[in-house]
Amino acid sequence: MQRYDCLIVGTGPAGLGAAFHLSDHHPELTVLLIDKERMSTGGLRNDCKMNFTFPIGFPLEYWEKQSTEEMIFLATKYLPPKILTTRNIAVYKKRADRLGVELLEIRQSHLGTDEGLNLINELMENLGARGVSISLNERMEDIRQQERCIVTDKREISYRKLIIAPGRKGFGFLQKIMDKLRIPYVDNVVDIGLRIETREQYYTIVHDYYDPKFIFPDKVRTFCTNSNQAFVVREKYQSQSGRDYFSVNGHAFSEKRKSNGLVNFALLKTVGFTQPMASGQEFAEMLGQLVMLMGGGKPLIQRIGDFRLGKRSKEESFTGDLYDFEPTLKGCTPGDISLAMPARILRAIWKSMKLLDTIVPGIMHPSTIMYYPEIKLYANKPQFLDQYFQAKKDIYLIGDGAGTSRGIVAAWASGIRAAKGILQNIEVKHNS
Question: Are 299 and 372 in contact (CB under 8 A)?
Fold first, then answer.
């Protein structure tokens, strides 16, 4: 059985951040990264939008401004901060303020899905050149804490320190590991919402501010705006019972690609369960299964024009006249989202849509498409032993799936923090 100084499960930005920080400071450490996918995963692979402003992406219960800004600076060594230009922000802010809406101005970089893949390849080659071992298409299946080893679908691997960074898709997997290790946690928060798709001419703010961050009343926000060569995708998840369901997401290619004239973004409402404390993941899974039932195994789509008339969308809702562009995600079922989304969530999101249409007139055009569901599972809250995200002796849980971040830069920073904790208490063998 091979033994490594540090074993990292997950090659998204959290795992990569940890690997680079360990290699930078003690290159003699033996480090192995594994991932169940065939290539590095996470936000770097999906559109690759990066926010370099605190507290965007940084849950305030774990992060404070001064030390976080230092880690953001460290992250820029590997994550290129090609900051996008913003214009006319004061105009949008003034409109938003009148309505009780907040518009956050942040430092953003956007590489696009195509350039994100290039960055991943560069980072992986860099790690390989440093002597860091990488094994893709290898799935962690179990852990034996007393023996300090994990079991994968291919072998057993021994470790001195273990970092688990599964990302949002690994939300349920991480819960199983925490249950086995008896790590206390809660997952009482989840984001539920819609993916909105329309023509750029109806959401012109993207010409001034690539990914505008609006915060509405009732815990609703815009998230992950994509324009230029933009498209909607579906992502498969598996419930704890083993049944599949889909969530939608948005992508965009780099500015090197010709624009398709469309824009998409998420409108998400944060839902928290307190009395009684309940699982946000199980709630999201139930909603996902309801959509699978109503949509014949596919996500639902509905034109705003149909929704405002109180009728479901049909196939003919997606051709001709006002409905003059086709949805970029073809594998969806036209229907009535109001039958599938809880009323309280839908009311809050619809109210936010109307506020947004006042700030950026046009978004409520009848042709605008609503995709449902968009679900974000990143609210696992483990009970940590220290500030370095150590949840059990020599076991660290980081990234979006562990609730320590919400985005690429913050996930990378959480990897740096875990690496700092490891370097403080690991015996490093220096070469003679």
Answer: yes
